[in-house]
Design brief:
The protein has 468 residues and is α/β, with parallel strands linked by helices. 43% of the residues lie in helices and 15% in strands. Helix 4 packs across helix 5 (112-130).
Length: 468
């Protein structure tokens, strides 16, 4: 299988080269030249598979000849052996036809572990095979950073630099990153917001001259195709357990960077019977405004109780635009030429988006109320991001009799212990205990470098760290 850029001017790449490249040379994101699809009979035959075997069945068509079946099974097995729940992604019912898909049983208590435990193992395998050493550079709004560090900390051929917005992630999120003392791990607290971090990463990929000779950047953010690919699996896993392909599903996804919900869109394109995907946003609602009002205009970023979604530039939305504009790379490049300017989709593209996506905006006040209401009705504790997904799901279902009859799966993207301040506003709980492997998190020493929002200073810090 070949992978092509969403902007149409970069060379097509193999699976392995795509994974080790990240951003295309024309500034676009890589997508498969064509998607594998599964018939209803093939999907039905997947029912009852454990998570690892299902992951193999879904991922293998994308890999081609770059990995043998045994190599791929080994990578998958090592990745998901780190999860604390035997089901890997268990479902919990919270209301009539409403289910929570728990994606926080990985080592860093967030859904990012599904992709980044896999990607870390994949990087290690490919780099050892090629005899290369690379530099991973990523931006995080909170969860990607710790998951990427956990996935790469043991990799012999990687140095990893993660940028997070200084004082704009939760204390648990920060400590999960900054208490890792591996020699190949570097945390940068940038005096800016997540979009500043993400823009700095993109600029660094465009000009890598600051790196020592023989080194190059590799992406762990969701611009890396392998992350999206790994996330497709849990949509199939949840749907199969709730009656697919005989039943049609709906999914509600709290999202800021559009990667997680884009994986659901791909699952639908591959044959999974999904009727509707609900884009659940917080006050940083550019995706909701785009779908509901065709208003994709940037606004000042708001610091919210759901910090992992405090994003205004949703990188993976470009991958959807590529499909909405009939895979016309030139049209996508023109549309995104100025990311600071308002963007409006043409009517045909907007109509196609609305066939699949609904959207909702949920503010902090309502987020707190939903945490309280769900706990009082079911004794189930939501983190603030998942609460936004639940509220969005319920609003959308109210307007559709068919929607109320179909299973609605709300993706739970993080463990509530990662966001104790938000939960404390909703409920008089003394303390939400961290899992056993993190009980001493607040006692561990921290290490990070606080830097101004200045690309040259970040590059200088990275270059120095790589040669000392």
């Amino acid at each position: 299988m070949k992978f092509i850029s969403t902007r149409g001017r970069a060379p097509s790449l193999s699976f392995a080269d795509t994974v080790l490249t990240g951003l295309a040379t024309d500034g676009g994101l890589y997508v498969p030249e064509s998607l594998p699809t599964f018939s209803r009979a093939e999907i039905a035959a997947m029912a009852g598979l454990d998570y690892e075997e299902l992951a193999f069945r879904i991922i293998q068509p994308f890999v081609g000849e770059d990995l043998s079946d045994d190599e791929l099974r080994g990578i998958i097995g090592r990745a998901y052996s780190t999860f604390r729940h035997r089901a890997v992604a268990p479902l919990v019912q919270t209301d009539t036809n409403e289910w929570i898909l728990e994606l926080f049983h990985g080592p860093t208590l967030a859904f990012k572990d599904f992709a980044l435990q896999f990607l870390g193992q994949l990087f290690d395998h490919l780099l050892k095979k090629r005899g290369e050493r690379v530099v991973v550079m990523g931006a995080t709004s909170g969860d990607t950073g710790s998951a990427a560090i956990e996935g790469c900390r043991h990799c012999d051929n990687i140095d990893i630099f993660i940028l997070h917005p200084h004082k704009r992630v939760s204390e648990v999120q920060r400590r999960q990153m900054t208490t890792v003392m591996s020699d190949n791990v570097f945390n940068i607290a940038l005096e800016g917001n997540f979009d500043d971090c993400q823009n700095m990463v993109k600029a660094s990929f465009a000009d890598q001259s600051f790196l020592p000779d023989g080194r190059r950047l590799v992406a762990v953010n969701s611009i890396n195709w392998a992350r999206i690919m790994a996330q497709i699996v849990y949509y199939f896993y949840a749907a199969l357990r709730l009656g697919a392909p005989e039943k049609t599903m709906n999914f509600s996804v709290p999202t800021g960077n559009f990667g997680d919900i884009y994986a659901g869109y791909l699952a639908r394109q591959m044959g999974l019977p999904i009727d509707q995907l609900v884009i659940a946003t917080n006050a940083n609602d550019i995706l909701h405004r785009c779908i509901s009002d065709n208003d994709h205009s940037p606004r000042p970023l708001v610091h919210s109780l759901s910090p992992s979604m405090d994003i205004m530039v949703s990188s993976n939305f470009e991958r959807l635009l590529f499909d909405l504009y009939d895979r016309d790379g030139a049209a996508v490049a023109e549309l995104l030429a100025d990311r600071s300017a308002p963007m409006h989709l043409d009517e045909g593209a907007l109509a196609r988006a609305r066939e699949v996506f609904a959207s909702c905006r949920v503010d902090d006040r309502r987020t707190v109320e939903v945490i309280r209401e769900v706990f009082e009705s079911s004794e189930y504790l939501l983190d603030p991001h998942t609460a936004i997904g639940v509220e969005a799901a319920r609003r959308v279902r109210l307007g559709s009799q068919e929607g109320r009859e179909q299973p609605m799966v709300c993706l739970s993207t993080a463990h509530p212990a990662k966001f104790p301040d938000a939960v404390a506003r909703a409920l008089p709980l003394e303390k939400i205990p961290l899992p056993a492997h993190m009980q001493d998190l607040f006692e561990r020493a921290e290490r990070m470098k606080v830097l101004p929002n200045d690309l040259s200073q970040v590059h200088e810090f990275m270059a120095t760290a790589l040669v000392t």
